[in-house]
Amino acid sequence: MRCIFCKKDSTNSKSVEHIIPESLGNKSHILPKRIVCDGCNNYFATKIEKLVLDKPYFKNVRYRNLIKTKKDRLVPDRTLFPHKDGGWANVWLDEKGIIFDSKDNHLINLIKEGRINKLIIPIVNQPDENDYEISRFLAKVALEMLTDRIKNSKDWIEEIISNKQLDPIRNYARYGKGEFWKYHQRRIYSEETRFIDPIHHPEPYEILHEMDILYTEDKVMYFILVVMGIEFAINLAHSETDYYLEWLNKNNNASPVRRFSERMIMKNSI
Fold first, then answer.
1. What are the CA-CA distances from residue 171 to residues 10, 132, 141, 200 (Å)?
2. What DSSP character marks residue 46?
3. Which spans in the chain are helix H?
4. The whole model's pTM is what?
5. What is the pLDDT of residues 58-77, one digit of tens each?
């Protein structure tokens, strides 16, 4: 068995690979042991995923939506307590309320005394576009998602490893080789949006992330990832987004991940 990234022997590798980090709520999209070697798994966790998760948008959205880390810990973020003796502090949110750091006892006292009765949580609406770490993260997830489709066939996995057309995105994800790999980013629904699918899921539900592979009429393959309503699209063979923009134009800007039976509803309409 060989790793799909470094192509080295991964027979003795012991770790599974989460296609989307657990710290973004992923518990089900997992590649079995040996498809990604321990070395590449550790590299992506510390050198790519951690950098992405620590970016202002992802930290903020995890904080506001109570998405815990891999170690089941809440994510803190900067929150403003509007008072002349208040100010900014890192706090944690949970279902019961607010958790303060011990060094911020003065804020607790101000709240107890009734001198602070509100807080302001800044909202970071989207990640910065054309971000290098996000680009490499998308490249990594794209190759893993493609592999996930055929993970039960050793022959097809070997085909992905040997496919020279996938080497540029493979080497970009793992080693940062080559020029910046372009991707397309847009918001397709708000964080407050919930969904109903009369066929597959009649009760309202939230989507943390969803993904799919799009193969256009021009025989161009794109990986599509949606995280909390923000859609990312990346070409698996070349650094371009033009064909994806053409596809969107032909399909009334509908996202490739949407099921025909699924419809959006606002959270406050449930």
1. 17, 14, 13, 38
2. I
3. 38-43, 50-53, 56-64, 105-112, 132-148, 154-162, 167-175, 242-250
4. 0.90
5. 999 999 888 888 888 899 99
